[in-house]
Amino acid sequence: MTVKSKHVRIKGIKDGLVFLLDDKCPFEELLGELRYKLEHSHQNILTGPIVHVDIKMGKRSVTDEEKESVLEILRGQGNLLIRSVEVLEAVKSGNGSSLHVMSGILRSGQVLNHKGDLLFLGDVNPGGAITCTGDIFILGALRGMAHAGVEGNEGAVIAASVMAPTQLRIAEIISRPPDEWETRESSMEFAFLSEGVMQIDKIHNIVKLRRDLNVFKGV
Prior knowledge:
CATH topology of the largest domain: Pectate Lyase C-like
Helix content: 10-25%
Family: Belongs to the MinC family.
Subunit structure: Interacts with MinD and FtsZ.
Order of helices and strands: EEHEHEEEEEEEEEEEEEH
Distance between the termini: 59 Å
Radius of gyration: 20 Å
Domain Septum formation inhibitor MinC C-terminal: 103-197
Function: Cell division inhibitor that blocks the formation of polar Z ring septums. Rapidly oscillates between the poles of the cell to destabilize FtsZ filaments that have formed before they mature into polar Z rings. Prevents FtsZ polymerization.
Strand content: 35-45%
Domain Septum site-determining protein MinC N-terminal: 8-85
């Protein structure tokens, strides 16, 4: 069997591999090429120590079953450890822009940079960091650093299911959280700027904040 198409690209990074999967080809064709590359043309990466793998599926619309079929192929190789799966989705954030969706775990020393708004499904561990030009929404624990509005957008927000960061930053305003972060009420919160001062509120109040901001701007 000869596979001439390049629907699957495997890129080496400092701490693992990135599998870049074409989001326009038929899904079964994609799976076939993935199996072939792992079984024939890329056997050298399947020997040796554990290799961390990040999967990028582009803007393909996939079901949970389809995503699982990709993971099963990779899990079948003994030394590949799935670290994250990224699927871009056309979700809208509270300010009307497209919301980029990613999942995984950010460990100490790892930094995720994104241009735009980000929904991160997973935890940010101490020593890990997320920086975005827009909003940051974390469905998980924020125990590392988060910087929203990195290009000066003071209207950006940072939200997390568990808000226990080492540092929050919106635009140029930095807030080093108090020692009692860990004892705060267990509910999703968000950080925002009010007259240049970092504030924390319950997530359900973000709608009112954005509505009031739009009224203030005359939108």
